[in-house]
Amino acid sequence: GNIIEENYGENCRYSLHFMYAGANIIRNNEYHHNSVGIFFMYSRDSVATGNVIHNSLGATGMGIGLKEVSNFTIKNNTVIYCAQGFFIDWSPFEEDMPNLIEGNHILYNAEGMHFHNQNVGNAIKNNNFIGNMEN
Predict the structure, then answer these.
(1) What letter does residue 5 receive in the DSSP assignment?
(2) How far apart are CA 128 and CA 123, in angstroms?
(3) What is the pLDDT of residues 61-97, one digit of tens each?
(4) Which terminus of the chain is less hemmed in, N or C, by CB atoms within 10 Å?
(5) Rounded to whole angstroms, what are the CA distances from 80 to 25, 29, 40, 83?
(6) How far apart are CA 87 and CA 4, in angstroms?
(7) What are residue 47's DSSP bridge partners?
(8) How many helices (H) and strands (E) does the chain have?
């Protein structure tokens, strides 16, 4: 139940890492040159909107990661120059609680969106995939 907004993070392992933490609003933050911009694990009912994640590089480099999360809204974010723009692992975790990934700008990443396993039930729509080596 936290609101995290208008923060800046740079040169960190994670700028934000949520584990068993739900019902959060993450908006209008900027995260640059981290291993991971925002990573959500084992949670549900959160919204991430208007964030900019830039240059998350290296072996674990990702802009936004979702692992076993449900009922998330990831909307109107910019993920640029990352190893993986989005990393999706077993999400949605609860089949009747899909995630919405909409209106994001996924730009110039090595990999735009990586599905780590058999993921079904996400609504992925109206995103801009531009300049990625692999979409």
Answers:
(1) E
(2) 15
(3) 999 999 999 999 999 999 999 999 999 999 999 989 9
(4) N
(5) 21, 14, 19, 9
(6) 21
(7) 25, 73
(8) 0, 17
pTM: 0.96
The pLDDT assigned to 60 comes to: 84
65: three-class secondary structure by DSSP = strand
As a whole number of Å, the end-to-end CA separation of the chain is 33
Q: How far apart are CA 24 and CA 68, in angstroms?
A: 16
Whole-number Å distance between alpha carbons of 122 and 42: 16
Q: DSSP letter at 134?
A: B
The residues, any chain, with a CB within 8 Å of residue 76's CB and separated by 6 or more, are 49, 50, 102, 103, 104
Residues 38/66, Cβ–Cβ less than 8 Å: no
Mind listing the pLDDT tens digit for each residue in 94-125?
989 999 999 999 999 999 999 998 778 899 99
Contact call for residues 86 and 109 (beta carbons, < 8 A): no
What distance in Å separates the CA atoms of residue 66 and residue 90, rounded to the nearest whole number?
A: 8
- Are residues 81 and 108 in contact, defined by beta-carbon separation less than 8 angstroms? yes
